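In response to the reviewer comment on reproducibility (Comment 2.3), we provide here a single inverse folding case reported in full, input and output, so that an independent group could reproduce the run without further information from us. The structure tokens appear first.
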């Protein structure tokens, strides 16, 4: 599978996910093989099984970094009924452990639920204070299919048991948070943040499935964001140098040389101006380095009225199943039903027609 990915996808990195990679018995060998192939191995984990000793072995094998998923809905032992701000203590524990080992980048994922939407600034604020240790934050909007309101049909138009899927629930009566709404609350609290890249949807032309921005600052102040031109230049430059487009930076320390791009990038010009204004007020800050910290926003698949799902265009998180590339977030449908299922609302006339066809 690693070789298949390299041949057909030419990735910047491999994200090792699915279940909990840290308890996979051959994880060290897998990381070493990926590193040997010249691709960055990245582990997506909840961090429960991580110890300093294990971390050291993973780094020796060639691990490039971690994406740690931490949020208040994981039902972790001793963390129930805790807020996202409370969970910053857990994030801090993991960040300190990874920083103590050194030489690894670290990103934190969090799922955004309607009831935790207002807590996003608490996570961003913590991340900025730890900009030397944390290279990125990712917010993923919660999505689910409801059994009470939908039926599902497989690729043969046969009705299937929707409850078998891990991403369904009986009912959901709240509002699904969107990527623009996450962007809005971040920008309202941190006006220095500005997205500079996006991916649209596979069905809707006006949906923002991925938003990515990169903020510039240090531990005491954020000055601004990387603009569209610099983001494009970074991708082109990395592709010329390595033959691949950039997904993960290996270090967050970028230095003041980033300000050299201010004549071509309005966003960096603004950040540069904020830096010098801050330096005039606090001269000691002149000797502080500049760090970059990305903030990504992912809007999970949305079910359309015709039963199709609006997926992320070109799917950055694609995986392999039965010798084919499929969307990793919907692998359960392939495992259980042989392919993507269509979900229709029960009060839809098309649903009644599907039921009739199934009975015949």
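Designed residues, in position order:
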């Amino acid at each position: 599978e690693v070789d298949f990915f390299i041949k057909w996808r030419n990735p910047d990195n491999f994200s090792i996910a699915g279940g909990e990679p840290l308890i996979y018995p051959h994880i060290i060998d897998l990381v070493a093989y990926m590193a040997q192939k010249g691709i960055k191995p990245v582990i997506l984990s909840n961090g429960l099984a991580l110890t300093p000793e294990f971390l050291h072995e993973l780094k020796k094998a060639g691990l490039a970094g971690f994406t740690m998923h931490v949020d208040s809905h994981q039902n972790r032992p001793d963390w129930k009924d805790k807020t996202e701000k409370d969970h910053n203590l857990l994030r801090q524990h993991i960040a300190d452990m990874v920083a103590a080992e050194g030489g690894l980048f670290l990103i934190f994922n969090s799922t955004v639920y309607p009831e935790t939407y207002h807590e996003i600034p608490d996570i961003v604020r913590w991340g900025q204070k730890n900009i030397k240790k944390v290279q990125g934050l990712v917010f993923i909007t919660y999505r689910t299919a409801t059994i009470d309101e939908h039926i599902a049909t497989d690729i043969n138009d046969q009705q299937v048991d929707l409850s078998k899927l891990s991403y369904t629930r009986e009912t959901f009566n709240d509002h699904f948070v969107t990527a623009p709404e996450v962007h809005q609350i971040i920008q309202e609290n941190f006006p220095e943040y500005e997205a500079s890249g996006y991916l649209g949807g596979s069905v809707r032309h006006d949906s923002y499935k991925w938003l990515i921005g990169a903020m510039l600052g240090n531990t005491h102040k954020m000055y601004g964001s990387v603009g569209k031109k610099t983001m494009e230049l970074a991708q082109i430059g990395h592709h010329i140098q390595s033959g691949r487009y950039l997904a993960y930076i290996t270090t967050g320390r970028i230095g003041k040389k980033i300000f050299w791009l201010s004549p071509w990038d309005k966003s960096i010009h603004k950040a540069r101006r904020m830096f010098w204004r801050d330096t005039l007020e606090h001269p000691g800050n002149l000797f502080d380095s500049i760090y970059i910290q990305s903030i990504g926003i992912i809007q999970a698949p949305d079910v359309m009225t015709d039963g199709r799902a609006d997926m992320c265009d070109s799917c950055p998180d694609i995986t392999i199943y039965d010798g084919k590339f499929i969307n990793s977030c919907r692998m359960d449908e392939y495992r259980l039903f042989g392919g993507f299922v269509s979900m229709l609302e029960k009060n839809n006339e098309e649903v009644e027609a599907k039921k009739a066809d199934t009975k015949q």
